[in-house]
Amino acid sequence: MVRLAVRVEVESAGRAATVRVARGLLPALQLAPGRHVLSFGTRRVRARVEEDAGLAPGRVVVPAPVAQRLVLPGALRTSIQRHEEGEIAFGPLIGLMVAPRVLDRLRGDGLRPPFTAYARYARELGAVLCVFTAGDVDPRESAIAGYRPETGPGGSWSLLPGRFPVPRVVLRRVFSHEGLESDPFTARAPGAGCTVLRIGRITQLEGLRMAARDPDLAPLVPWTRRLEPDTLAAALNQFQDLFVKPDLPSGGDGLYRLTRQRQGWRLTRWTPDGPGERWLPDDGAVREALAPLLTAPAVHLVQESLPLATYLGNPFDLFALVQRDGRGQWDVSALLARIAAPGRAITSPGAGGWVAPAEAALRQAFPRRWSDLAQDVGRVARAAAQAVDRAGGPRYEVGVQLALLPDGTVRLVQVDGEPRAEHVTRVHDPYAAQRIHRCPVYCAAGLAVRWAHGPLPPAGPPA
Q1: Is 3.90.170.10 the CATH number for 94-198?
Q2: Under 8 Å CB-to-CB from 7, ≥6 apart: which residues?
Q3: Residues 364-411: pLDDT tens digits?
Q4: Which of 35, 59, 183, 391, CA to CA, is 20 to 30 A from 206?
Q5: Which fold, 3-91?
């Protein structure tokens, strides 16, 4: 598919419905002068297109009436390409939905990472990025009062206001602490021809249940139940080592470990100040110690503890950031090892754990098998992301936590619906740092073309 970089200008006067293009653009698209369908986002307009030898190379001049019907935001640098049946598409237009306070900060302080990276990679593709909030959408006009990132003197980025059509694909980058999990625009988007790819918090139990719908993943999920008197009794009877933890991802805070010791149990609790231990003589003492959790409004889980492989004598697990790529396929953008601090068993960086490149840990723990194990880990991580996307999507990225047992067996511990990139950046992998921000933009651009004539419905696989 040919994509040509162009500079689009809006002409206020001139031939009412004729779009003029620089010489050579139509032959490059294998089109002849005449009437063609033009598209931008979800808008499609039929207009006459002619070559104009007086225009500079790469220039496209759109008369104001056509620009208004396409909802072009004014002069812009973008690309054009030919779609099916000779349609000429501008863009693609990519939507980036953020929380209102995030947009206020970007407008006041200018673009900062990761938004500068999103803008840079959109420009790299010749795409137009529209930053907006759910409240900026006019459902009656199917238009958005959003902002377009542009560079100014010195290369600094700023946001230019403009009016845009509804994009074919929107990245909904709204974290759970910033706003509601849904909004009126996201709910109506498929009816407007728009696919919203999102992040969004899912509980640990939900994530594991979604993954377990895949028959190949189900055996890899550790025994996990909602903490209740009967599930606690079953766990104490069946396992020698257990974790009790909040159902919502907590970064290691509020985590308990129960380890069988003689006829009783050693209870270890992790807090921001470090671990504290108690010895409990019997199961009744365990129930009494955990009584506040059994009656608390916040849901807790009881899960079997898995023995972990070690890196330099310290237990470690693996975290995979799995994202859709430009083809819409799920792939691992970053893989890192989370390593428990000396003398501890918790790998979470929030509980004092360290991070390192996964390859370093795998090479040290499994010197002869590390490459094969890395492939196994990637396969399980991709399958987990696909399973969660089928059950609770469509999404554009998922975090997957995996345990690697001392014999090299891979187990699936947690699936996170709104992973953060902080831990990934700690390993100072410049290629991963590029991928984690490039993939969402490339994904949206690729899917905008792929799904040009039909949005992806919520909680459904790609067509």
Answers
A1: no
A2: 58, 59, 60, 75, 76, 77
A3: 999 999 999 999 999 999 999 999 999 998 999 999 999 999 999 999
A4: 183
A5: Barwin-like endoglucanases (2.40.40)
